[in-house]
Amino acid sequence: KVFSAHFGQLSIIFLWLSGMYFHGARFSNYEAWLSDPTHIGPSAQVVWPIVGQEILNGDVGGGFRGIQITSGFFQIWRASGITSELQLYCTAIGALVFAALMLFAGWFHYHKAAPKLAWFQDVESMLNHHLAGLLGLGSLSWAGHQVHVSLPINQFLNAGVDPKEIPLPHEFILNRG
């Protein structure tokens, strides 16, 4: 039962991440900040004019009024190579899909194929699954993303190229000519 609860926890984490990416895509000035991060402050929230609360909105630059954020999400997204709201939306949808998969995995391992105690006591199978799958492949894929996607995109951004002119990440791989 505890094993399937872990999938439920992962589902909640993916749902939370999806919300962060969705709010960044829908309510933020990420694209404006990305084009001029020194003069435009990051803002992902606008207070609606209800009972005078719009006084909390400040000018963050680029013609955008909102609450300036200091969470570091914009910097993380830039370092990851995200250059548009569309990519933020796609990441939010991907996180929702993974949340649904984790919810299904929790249900499946609780109701249909609950692991037996002997499986947890078999150290060899447990270590191979967790270490090779999660740590090994996860680290390799993230390192590959950093080298082949994030680094070229950040070199373009540091050189002053407009984010809208930077090719999408898959175009770096497919259009080598």
From TrEMBL:
This is Photosystem I P700 chlorophyll a apoprotein A1. InterPro entries: PSI_PsaA/B, PSI_PsaA/B_sf. The keyword tRNA processing does not apply. The keyword Transmembrane helix applies. The chain crosses the membrane at residues 7-24, 86-108. Keywords: Membrane, Transmembrane, Transmembrane helix. Coiled coil: none annotated. Gene3D superfamilies: Photosystem I PsaA/PsaB. It comes from the Eukaryota.
